[in-house]
Q: What sequence folds into this?
């Protein structure tokens, strides 16, 4: 399979910019992500992808958007167990509480958080776009591992692949973490 999806909701375009930059980051690593607006994705498509990046801005009072994104995402939760995912979104005045809570709920559902959750304050600036691309890059390393595992048919990733993947993804992780640290409001 080895497929990556980026699924997002965006009211004013900021999270959409992040989604497209994540897909660009995947593209820069030589593969392709399928990008879906939330209304074009459903739980029945979860099994089609090895890795899914979900994006939703902070809405309500540190909540996920509840008229388009949540109706799509809630049924997906039943398929999160063991799924490699990444979370991202834009926000304004908060401190990222909506993203922390969302990540915790996904962990509780059994999801594997494949890259640091990524937030951008309003419209992503150049550094935010770089962090989005780094997120896309780290997702490619994850499916790279899956591909190699599929090649040799072994159910567990050989340790050497994990080590190579880990080393290759360090730079991307550092870019994401540096961005998140710089954003305290
Ligand atoms: C109804 C509404 C509720 C919001 N609630 C929050 C919030 O709780 N915390 C926050 O940091 N930003 C909040 N915001 C700001 C949005 O997250 C921010 O404008 C974001 O950039 C929107 O992303 P989008 O362009 O992808 O829709 C809210 C915006 C709206 C319109």
A:
């Amino acid at each position: 399979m080895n497929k990556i999806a980026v699924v997002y909701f965006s009211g004013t375009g900021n999270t959409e910019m992040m989604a497209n930059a994540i897909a660009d980051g995947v593209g820069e690593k030589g593969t392709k992500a399928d990008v879906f607006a939330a209304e074009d994705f459903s739980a029945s498509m979860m099994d089609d992808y090895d890795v899914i990046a979900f994006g939703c801005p902070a809405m309500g009072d540190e909540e996920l958007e509840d008229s388009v994104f949540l109706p799509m995402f809630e049924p997906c939760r039943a398929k999160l167990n063991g799924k490699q995912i990444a979370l991202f979104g834009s926000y304004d005045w908060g401190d990222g509480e909506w993203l922390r809570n969302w990540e915790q709920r996904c962990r509780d559902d059994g999801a594997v958080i494949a890259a640091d959750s990524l937030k951008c304050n309003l419209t992503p600036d150049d550094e935010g776009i770089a962090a989005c691309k780094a997120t896309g890059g780290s997702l490619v390393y994850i499916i790279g591992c899956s591909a190699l595992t599929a090649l040799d048919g072994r159910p567990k990733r050989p340790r050497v692949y994990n080590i190579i993947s880990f080393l290759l993804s360090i730079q991307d992780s550092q870019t994401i973490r540096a961005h998140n640290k710089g954003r305290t409001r």
Notes: The chain has one domain: 4-183. The CA atoms of residues 11 and 52 lie 20 Å apart. Helices lie at 14-28, 69-76, 97-108, 126-152, 159-182. Residues 10-15, 57-62, 90-94, 122 surround flavin mononucleotide (CB under 6 Å).
